[in-house]
Amino acid sequence: MAELHTGVGRQRGARPWPRPRRIATLSVHTSPLHQPGTGDAGGMNVYILEVARRLAEADVEVEIFTRATSGDLPPVVETAPGVHVRHVTSGPLEGLTKEELPGQLCAFTAGVLRTEASRPPGHYDLIHSHYWLSGQVGWLAKERWGVPLVHTAHTLAKVKNAQLAAGDRPEPKARVIGEEQVVTEADRLVANTTVEARDLIDRYGADPARVAVVEPGVDLDRFRPAPGNRDRVAVEARRRLGLPATGYVVAFVGRIQPLKAPDVLIRAVAALREHDPVLADQVTVVICGGPSGSGLDRPTALMELAGTLGVADRVCFLPPQTGDDLPALYRAADLVAVPSYNESFGLVALEAQACGTPVVAAAVGGLVTAVRDQVSGVLIDGHDPADWARTLGRLLPDRPHRAELARGAARHARNFSWHRTASGLLTVYGEAIAAHRARLASELACGPAMSCSW
């Protein structure tokens, strides 16, 4: 495979890349204003909003186009100076699933194009689309506006279908085709990790020269170890959230759907109870999030599973947490579990580590980057509950080892920040703009009657 480039690293070169003034960010199926952990809102929402804020701080205006899902929403919301979220009416305001949205892409595209048409020519310097639905819109807009398209997939259908959770539905062929089209048409493809970059190249035939790796970040001001004694901090956080003050807490944070595999954690506690009932009776599993995707088919499935396995007394369900309550949950936990079948990166793992909490995660996708095995947490091959039970049974009683991992977690997380992500993206944007300008100059030099190659 050809050498991959890292957007952050390339910025250190001597060449001054062009800098965009305004960016149109496309997020069709979910708004960055939605609460992560509910519906289709997750790490992508956090990514889009955090990056937009950091770009605006660097004097790059960002306008985020997303689908209107409520009549109560104003047409435009300013979330920070230089960052505006524009709600585009396309289809019914409520009741549409992500799978039904391709039928509304024409209406959404029309709303985006009308907005640009009301502005002076050349208002946007670049388009950054997120997820394949947005990439379809961006593909058309880039041709109409004459600007480059940068695309971030966040998840890929071929990867998800190759690592499908039991009982989950495969992604449809229409999505696979749509992703292939966007990969072909985008001027630059931003991958969260080298693993995702390889998937784009090997599974989708992406040109390695157009693939850049720019790792996501974490808000290190919001997610950080609390000052003071860690035990006292944890007890206070548990009291705040209504969790047991004593014993062990293992937390899952995210959307409740088969892909995220929270059932593995419940099954692991049941397996632990069989082999070490004394330890298992000291463990509280916290499932924090709301049903999403195919998890909506049976929203109470996890509660029923816990009851069937006889561990309902060991499982606590919390709704998605906002504000300071999310960092508090991370600090309340002895371990945070991320048992997903696939993650393009795994922002939950990074947030937990930034709070000084070790992470136990499946060794898949971006989690092998987000978690440094045996330094900031532990990576587990596969999803066998017995393996997860053995890992929990070994780590939870070993206080010195957990303390060492907690220190490593905080150190590891400090290597990531949203400023670093935005800086890497600015490099990718600059390259895309420079290549676009060079292509236009070549076309002008050749003239309409001549054929050019570059």
Structure description:
- Helix 13 (347-354) links the parallel strand 13 (335-338) and strand 14.
- Residues 8-14 have low confidence and may be disordered.
- By secondary structure, the protein is an alpha/beta fold.
- The two termini are 22 Å apart.
- Strands 1-9-8-7-6-2-3-5-4 form a 9-stranded mixed sheet, sandwiched between helices. It has a 6-stranded parallel sheet with strand order 12-11-10-13-14-15, sandwiched between helices.
- It has helices at 7-10, 43-57, 105-117, 131-145, 157-162, 173-185, 194-204, 230-241, 262-275, 277-280, 301-308, 325-332, 347-354, 367-370, 385-395, 399-413, 418-446, and strands at residues 5-6, 22-27, 61-67, 76-80, 83-88, 126-130, 149-152, 188-191, 211-213, 248-253, 283-288, 315-318, 335-338, 359-362, 377-380.
- Helix 2 (43-57) packs across helix 17 and helix 3 runs parallel beside helix 4.
- The longest helix has 29 residues, at 418-446.
- The protein is 42% helix and 15% strand.
